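Quick review question:
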């Protein structure tokens, strides 16, 4: 069994650290341009004497030739954002296995954590074969994640990343089995989200009426500790909004102190009437 990987970002790096310790040696690793983890991934490959092709075009002729020359069976796409086209898909013996941070077929494309919150669609992670369509190949393994009302986009993304690492590690040996079972994806719609979809959707129109729940979901879905967030424009300037939502402590409502405060409020209200 000859395997290779295209790895990017923190999750790709963590999964690669797992792969280099396994029985099957990676034939090569491809890194992504402008990836903040690109140097770390390249350095890890150097430590294990794995050929690393930094920034190689996965739709280029060099990539196709490399797979054919090495007789690659499976290429793992580890948190990989680039779409793989027909010629590259045909250059390996078994196929490409992708890691996607949504419960496919829901939220294909970019930023699934955002759309799970604002649309109320199921959240989770999926490991699947890929074909020429975006996130449409047969499903191998999945894990569903619950999304409480206090969840922010950042927290859901972090949980999805952790869940993917666990799901991949648990099922790695099964993925190498030539008889591993997969199932067809049954589509709920044909929507594929692009990066600009989230940008447009999370721009708050100050002249528009929103349902309270819808507005809260937009704000929490784009709330990250740093980086872009939901925003609005006023007086020629752009303002960003982040929220923090916490569940109320039910026990405090039964504490002597809380009862005392509640009684004072009630007494004050009675005195005003």
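Suggested answer, residue by residue:
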């Amino acid at each position: 069994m000859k395997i290779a990987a295209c790895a990017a970002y923190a999750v790709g790096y963590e999964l690669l650290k797992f792969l280099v310790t396994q029985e099957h040696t990676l034939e090569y690793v491809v890194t992504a341009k402008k990836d903040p983890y690109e140097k770390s991934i390249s350095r890890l490959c150097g430590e294990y004497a794995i050929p690393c092709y930094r920034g190689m075009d996965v739709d280029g002729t060099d990539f196709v030739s490399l797979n054919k020359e090495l007789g690659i069976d499976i290429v793992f796409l580890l948190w990989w954002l680039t779409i793989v086209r027909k010629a590259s898909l045909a250059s390996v013996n078994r196929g490409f296995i992708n890691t996607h941070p949504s419960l496919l077929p829901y939220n294909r494309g970019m930023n699934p954590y955002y759309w799970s919150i604002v649309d109320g669609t199921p959240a989770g992670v999926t490991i699947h074969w890929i074909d020429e369509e975006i996130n449409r190949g047969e499903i191998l393994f999945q894990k569903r994640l619950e999304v409480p009302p206090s969840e922010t986009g950042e927290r859901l993304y972090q949980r999805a990343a952790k869940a993917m690492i666990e799901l991949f590690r648990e099922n790695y040996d099964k993925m190498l089995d030539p008889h591993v079972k997969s199932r067809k994806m049954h589509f709920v719609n044909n929507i594929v989200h692009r990066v600009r979809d989230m940008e447009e959707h999370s721009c708050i129109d100050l002249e528009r009426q929103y349902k309270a729940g819808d507005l809260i979901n937009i704000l929490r879905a784009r709330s990250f500790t740093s980086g872009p967030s939901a925003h609005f424009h006023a007086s020629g300037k752009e303002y960003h909004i982040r929220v923090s939502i916490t569940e109320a402590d039910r026990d405090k409502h039964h504490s002597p102190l809380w009862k005392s405060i509640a009684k004072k409020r009630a007494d004050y209200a009675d005195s005003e009437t």
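Why it works: The mean pLDDT is 93. The longest strand covers residues 123-129.
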